């Protein structure tokens, strides 16, 4: 059974929809430039609604110690997800937080997958995400996807997840073609950047279960 993370949640109704639909993980974004950035007080309120069997993943972009310490405490995080963070720093934050650590790897070409080996000793899971354009303000959540065929036959050095441009219409094909054990969606269940839709979340999770 493929797991699913609904990322960038920021209100009780859509968080509840993710949990009710069977999400294995929910994601809270702690990155000021993002439309999904979550204040600590709201993270605490949402975390209180999450049952124990659902993981809470905090999403960061090369964070400093103060941000990650505060977010882990406020959001009751069970895992941290790091974007644009060097492997030694990933390993350091993994030790510092004592949390399961996901490292995002931006992918556009097969050569980009070479970066997975450098993460093998630093993280617990690799999140393959679509590479965003040069100069983009955000490292993800832009609805972009990469060629899933790049993952065919690839020897994954760690447990992994698939992200980038997924939605209810294509996630079934993505799972079928890549064998992804976990899929991650954000913009694919939104009506506007940062505005999650309970119906789209339910449809996505139903497609994953199929």
UniProtKB/TrEMBL annotation:
It comes from the Bacteria. The keyword Protein biosynthesis does not apply. GO terms for biological process: L-tryptophan biosynthetic process. InterPro entries: Aldolase_TIM (IPR013785), PRAI_dom (IPR001240), RibuloseP-bd_barrel (IPR011060), TrpF_fam (IPR044643). It catalyses: N-(5-phospho-beta-D-ribosyl)anthranilate = 1-(2-carboxyphenylamino)-1-deoxy-D-ribulose 5-phosphate. Keywords: Amino-acid biosynthesis, Aromatic amino acid biosynthesis, Isomerase, Tryptophan biosynthesis. Pathway: Amino-acid biosynthesis; L-tryptophan biosynthesis; L-tryptophan from chorismate: step 3/5. Gene3D superfamilies: Aldolase class I. Residues 4-206 form the N-(5'phosphoribosyl) anthranilate isomerase (PRAI) domain. It holds the Pfam family PRAI. GO terms for molecular function: phosphoribosylanthranilate isomerase activity. Its EC number is 5.3.1.24. Belongs to the TrpF family. This is N-(5'-phosphoribosyl)anthranilate isomerase. It comes from Sphingomonas baiyangensis.
